[in-house]
Design a protein that fits this description.
Shape: globular
Strand content: over 45%
Largest sheet: 7 strands, mixed
Structural class: mainly beta
Number of strands: 11
Radius of gyration: 13 Å
Number of helices: 1
Distance between the termini: 37 Å
């Protein structure tokens, strides 16, 4: 499975961005999907996940709960992360993740990673 993330950029605090991740090379609906992020000098951390098939189950890190929304479009083989009310501490490289086991996405050990997209939030 190949993952291509896009949509990052520079935004002021309080602003919004929508990240996209296009998947190819696998049966997309069979994979749980998620987003993780890594800030300079820090370890990669879980941000959000969505279950495979219909995506009926989502999970968020406490730090983004109520501000970020993950969704998937199985017809387009894509997963999205809508980020609202962004804060400077959200600045990081965001990575798309995929695995047939949801738990592995949550604990940041998925089988597949995208290449990352930079999100910078200015104060």
């Amino acid at each position: 499975v190949q993952l291509q993330a896009s949509g990052g950029g520079l935004v002021q605090a309080g602003g919004s961005l929508r990240l996209s991740c296009a998947a190819s090379g696998g049966t997309f609906f069979n994979y749980a999907m998620g987003w993780s992020r890594q800030a300079p000098g820090k370890e990669r951390e879980f941000v959000a996940s969505i279950s495979r098939y219909s995506g009926g189950s989502t999970l968020y890190a406490d730090s983004v709960k109520g501000r970020f929304t993950i969704s998937r479009d199985n017809a387009k083989n894509m997963v999205f992360l809508q980020m609202d009310n962004l804060k400077p501490e959200d600045t990081a490289v965001y990575y798309c993740a995929a695995d047939q086991v949801l738990h592995k996405v949550i604990v940041v050990t998925p089988e597949y990673w995208g290449q990352g997209t930079q999100v910078t939030v200015s104060s």
